[in-house]
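Section handout, structural biology tutorial.
Before the tutorial, make sure you can parse a SMILES string by hand: atoms, branches in parentheses, ring closures as digits. In the record below the ligand is adenosine-5'-diphosphate, and the chain has 178 residues. In the tutorial you will relate the predicted structure tokens back to the input. Do not try to memorize them.
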Amino acid sequence: MVPVIAFFNQKGGTAKTTSTLNVGAALAERGQRVLALDLDPQASLTMALGIDIARLEASVYDLLVEDPLPLSEVIVATRIEGFDLVPSHPDLAAAELELLNALERERRLAHALAAADPLPYDYVLIDSPPALNILSVNILVAATALVIPIEPHPFEEILTWVERLRAGEVESRVALVP
Ligand SMILES: Nc1ncnc2c1ncn2[C@@H]1O[C@H](COP(=O)(O)OP(=O)(O)O)[C@@H](O)[C@H]1O
Ligand SMILES: [Mg+2]
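Predicted structure of the complex:
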């Protein structure tokens, strides 16, 4: 089975989209066939890849509905060779409500990928929304691996304080264990 790697963190601004884009581009540059899925209704990955959302005929939303489109009909090529995309659409924001009482609502994405097996790709990458909702659960069910980008803010602050101590601002013998 093709690895399905989700860049996942319920917090915004932790480099999920940047990582999906750059890891995807780096893999494609090395000759790997990459399919990225944009599961964020804000569609940052889709826009970053230069795709005009207003002109899309289908999006990842159409994979999650009652009578879904086949995966192959939702895929668009990007300007990066070997890097295809299932684009997002603002409509995806409504998926949460629409799936509220739907059967197997947490398995829609997994089903969409399984129905297209064997996939003509070496890697599937998923860009996640900054939320914990039904879309996130679909991602967790469909993924085979998670990458959780985090912001090391508190860590940076500790280092700054240690550096200040060591610079002699306050007398201290503290050393950092490498
Ligand atoms: N490695 C990095 N170094 C510095 N800034 C980064 C790095 N990765 C991402 N950023 C910046 O952080 C911000 C948030 O990144 P983004 O990928 O949109 O996060 P998310 O998708 O988790 O909301 C963006 O402005 C992006 O340019
Ligand atoms: Mg993002």
